[in-house]
């Protein structure tokens, strides 16, 4: 069946249009059905090729589905949903767009036998959480290497000598010099606090910070 050049070929039916392929024994080997609700193809392998070069753009069989286009773009508002796992060597966002990894209801886990590297070449790296942030190394060390390391919002404990009450918290007199240097102290439970620096160590295990933490 053919038509003259630049003319369409129209196959029309009140129900559907079905194209069957059979082998030499008359057995059905492939079928394409165009119906009112769907287009169905039944075959061992289904392929969509580019008009130039014959590159396979889409193929499907019982074992796998292959998309050979240079870019796969999902325009749905909910994105792409994968019921099990996704295997890929590279995940990146579009130009001028942020890349966001999010697990709204459960946890987000990143594991690799040879390490996980997070790098921000031209910006800040920020980690925030609602409850506790744990940095743990089971066999190695946690190494902080920076020009400036700041520990913000550390509580300031009160220091008193043995001759005075340990709970003394009297405010300094107006003539007393302003305290600008502090000592970083660690409680037995690991909590950090600041203590006014003196000639000797002013850290105390009985500090109000340690007792009430």
UniProtKB/TrEMBL annotation:
Superkingdom: Eukaryota
Subcellular location: Cell membrane, Sarcolemma; Cytoplasm, Cytoskeleton
Pfam families: Sarcoglycan_1
GO biological process, one term: heart contraction
Swiss-Prot/TrEMBL keywords: Cell membrane, Cytoplasm, Cytoskeleton, Disulfide bond, Glycoprotein, Membrane, Signal-anchor, Transmembrane, Transmembrane helix
UniProt KW Disulfide bond keyword: yes
InterPro entries: Sarcoglycan, Sarcoglycan_gamma/delta/zeta
Bilayer disposition of the protein: Single-pass type II membrane protein
A GO term from the CC aspect: sarcoglycan complex
Main location: membrane
Family, as annotated: Belongs to the sarcoglycan beta/delta/gamma/zeta family.
Protein name, as recorded: SGCZ protein
Organism, scientific name: Mesembrinibis cayennensis
Gene: Sgcz
